[in-house]
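hey so i finally got around to running the thing on that chain from the lab meeting. sorry it took forever, my laptop kept dying and i had to restart like 3 times. anyway pasting the input first so we r on the same page abt which one it is
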Amino acid sequence: MLVDDREDNLMSLESVLEPDGYRFVKAGSGRQVLKHLLTDFDFALILMDVQMPNLNGFETASLIYERDRLRHIPIIFITANNYGEENLFKGYRAGAVDYIYKPVNPELLRVKVGVFVDLYRKNQRLIAQEQKLVAINRNLELEINERKASEEKVTDLNKQLLENISRLETANKDLDLFAFMASHDLQAPLRKIRMFSDRLLASSENQFSKEGKLYLSRIQEVSKRMQDLINDILRFSKIAVEKQSFEEVDLNGVVAEVLSEMEPVIREKNAQIELDPLPVLPASTVLMGPLFSNLISNALKYGKKGEVRVRIRYEEGPVQSTGNGKETEVRYGRIYIEDNGIGFDQKYAEQIFDMFRRLHSNAEYEGTGIGLALCKKIVEMHHGYISALGKPGEGAVFIVSLPLSAPQKESIGKNDEISGNTTNN
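ok and heres what got predicted. didnt touch it at all, straight out
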């Protein structure tokens, strides 16, 4: 801002400074200066004459610096008089940062103005940088607070999850124990029902009408079916309750023993069994028998009538990550049990491993709906996988993937179960 009560002095100052590209606001009195500063206070410098009517330069400077928002504006007094040290001190006390004496030296004026303008620009950059840093700090504080809140929420959720897992494990143990005990206690009355119905039918066969004999035979059939169901539930529950240990198991021997036990059924169905060499791997000897017994009997049961064919083959799978949060890799062996039976729609490939899930009625095929669920539980207790592929009328393939090396835990039991859905006979 240029301040002088004489227009020629203002024009002289402007002509000297104009080549440097400055923008000017001119005032002819102290009152005009104050009026300008009411609306605009972003000035790099004020060049002000001391001798002005009404309000001189010193008085105007004092009034300017009474306002906090204007105290950052430097003032250079322009004067034709040397006031002596006392008056110079008065000017500095009023707010002056420097003096320029008339006649004005153009080069000195430009240098002094350039210094203050440069300081102003640097100060503006610092202010802008400070505002940016304040905004960044504010955003960081918000982000830190949000992250802390998120971490607290995750911690709470993890705590709830652990509590839920603990409750579920306890509930599963109680359910397994209950199923085992209930199934065991149901055996005695069921045996009596079958025993007394057999005796009644044998001792009083001639005393019953045809309809009465039919009813008795129905009682025996239903009792047998219930007996099979209880046995399967017991077997399923026993696996979850009892602890099994790993050892090197030759699956060739296991399958050979299973086929030997099934020889009457194989002969009855005139089934062709094709068996490829199988691996030796760490497993529970007790559980491998039921696993292959259920899968092979399932293949025989649903095989094509008159030409049942079952193939059991093996291939070594690729190395896979265990996915348990550690960088452990395991190679799996895959055993395929293929049949040429009735097959199934692939949309049921996961459901068939659910407990009591059957795709066919008892009138078509006998079964309790537990066999494949039992297979799934056994495979998962060995840290393996089981899946099925099928197509209606074109047979089915059950794929069992088991680790070829022992897991870190050398035993399996109810605490090692892996929950999930799969299927049943």
